[in-house]
TrEMBL record:
GO MF annotation, one: oxidoreductase activity, acting on the CH-OH group of donors, NAD or NADP as acceptor
SMART domains reported for this sequence: PKS_KR
InterPro entries, per database record: KR_dom, NAD(P)-bd_dom_sf, Sc_DH/Rdtase_CS, SDR_fam
PROSITE patterns: ADH_SHORT (PS00061)
Pfam families given in the database record: adh_short_C2
Family according to the record: Belongs to the short-chain dehydrogenases/reductases (SDR) family.
Origin superkingdom: Bacteria
Protein name per the record: 3-oxoacyl-[acyl-carrier protein] reductase
Origin species: Kribbella antiqua
Domain Ketoreductase stretches: 209-387
Amino acid sequence: MTDRYQTFTRTPLGQTLVKNLGLPDPTPLPRWTEGSPVIDGPVVFGAIGETDAGKAIQALLRDIGASFSTATEGVASSEIRPKALVFDATGATSTADLTSLQRFFSPVIRQLAPAGRVIVVGRTPELAQSAEQQIAQRALEGFTRSLGKEVKRGATVNLVYVAPDAHEQLDSTLRFFLSTKSAYVDAQVVRIGTGPLVSNDPDQPLAGKTALVTGAARGIGAAIADTLARDGATVIGVDVPQNADALRTVISKIGGTELLLDVTAVDAPQRIAAHAVEHHGGLDIVVHNAGITRDKRLANMRTDAWDAVLDVNLRAPERITNHLLDSNALRDGGSIIGVASIAGIAGNNGQTNYATSKAGVIGLVQALAPKPMLTERQIRINAVAPGFIETEMTAKIPFTIREVGRRINSLQQGGLPIDVAETIAWFADPASAGVTGNVVRVCGQSLLGA
Ligand SMILES: NC(=O)c1ccc[n+]([C@@H]2O[C@H](COP(=O)([O-])OP(=O)(O)OC[C@H]3O[C@@H](n4cnc5c(N)ncnc54)[C@H](O)[C@@H]3O)[C@@H](O)[C@H]2O)c1
C-alpha cells in the first residue's frame, strides 16, 4: 500500500509545508537490491581500547571492502560524511569509560549520511566479570535508544551485545545491521552468544536448506518465502485451502512446494513433518508467520474470537515446533522463527487476545532457546516483533488510526513486508549460529512499548 503522505512530502510544496508547519518528514528508506555492497559509503570506527571484538569488527569491515577510518574521538571534519559509525564498547569496564561515547559520537554524529547506520557493540551485561562492568554495559542501552530518537533522515541506531569469546560470531549480525536489509530495524538490542563457526557464501547463505513458511500466500509471509528463496533456500509454503491460488502464485515463482492446510488442524504438525521428510528429506528453517486478528475489547470479546486467535497465533506454533523437534524432522543446526508483534510487548486497546498470543510467542522463544533439546543440536529460536507494516492487515485499519500508527516511530513511516523478511533471513542464516533467544522488533523504533 502506498504512503501518500510520504510521496507528497517529496514534492516542492510538500517540503515547504513540512518545514513551515513542522510536520513529519519521513525520509524514503533504501532497500537492498541484488549486487548492492553491504555498505555504500565510509565507515568510522571507534573503540574503548583494543579488544577481540574490535579486531573482529575491523576484519569484517576489511572483508566487505568498506572504506573505514579509526578514531577515538570522532571526526569533526565536514568533508567526511560517514555512512556508518561503529563503536566497540566491549572494553568498558566501569562507568568512567562511558565518557568515550560522548567523546566519539558528539563531534561526528551530525555528519552521518542519510539512512546511515550507528552500531554500538557491547559485552552482554549478565555475563560481565564485575558489577562495575555490568553497570557500564547496561548503560549502553539508554545511549543507543536515545540516539535512535535523535538521528534523523532514515538513520538507525542498534546495540549488539556479544558474550565473552563470541566475537567470531559477529559477522552475519554486523552485515545485517550495516546494510539496507535492516532499514526498519531501529533501537534494538541483540544478544550474541558462542556457537559453531559457519562460513558460507553471504550471497547464498541458505543454499541447500529447506524452509517452511506458514501463511505464505500473501503479505509478510509471501515476502519471507521470496527472501529465503533469494538466499538459496527451498521453500515449503503453507496456507489455508481458500488461498490455494495465491499460494501457487508465490511458490511457482520460487520453485518450492505447497502444502494446503490449516495450521490449527489436529494433524497439522504430523502432515507438515511428513511433507518435509517425503519431499525434502527434512527441514532446516521453520517460520511461524500465519496469524490472524479478531479485535474487540475484552468486555465484548466472543469466545470464538478469543479461541481462534490463540489457536492460530500461539497454539499452532507451539504444537508444530514440539512435533518437529520430537520427530527430528527439524535437522541439527536448524532455526525456528516466530512472528510476534509490538502489541505483544506494549499491549493494545481491543487486542487482549492478539497481544496474549503474541506475548506467548515471545514466551516460546524464551522457554525453548536454553533447552538442551535445542542447544545440544545447535537449534536456534528467535522471533521478530513487527510494528506497523504495510499489508492487507494494516490497510483495513481506519484512516486516522492508520495514519497515526504509521508516524509514531522514529522513522515516521510504516515498514514493508521485506523488512520483516530480511530480519528473518538474518535469523535463518547458519552463520548466525550465536543468535538465539532474541526478539527483535521491526518497528522503526515505535513509541509503543519502547
Ligand atoms: N501487518 C502488520 O503490521 C503486522 C504487525 C505485527 C505482526 N504481524 C504478524 O505478521 C504475520 C503476517 O501478517 P500479515 O500482515 O502478512 O497478515 P495477512 O493477513 O496479510 O496474511 C496472513 C496469512 O496467514 C494465513 N493464515 C491465517 N490463518 C491460517 C491458518 N489457520 N492456517 C494457515 N494459514 C493461515 C492467511 O491465509 C494469510 O495468507 C502475522 O502473524 C501477524 O500477526 C503483522
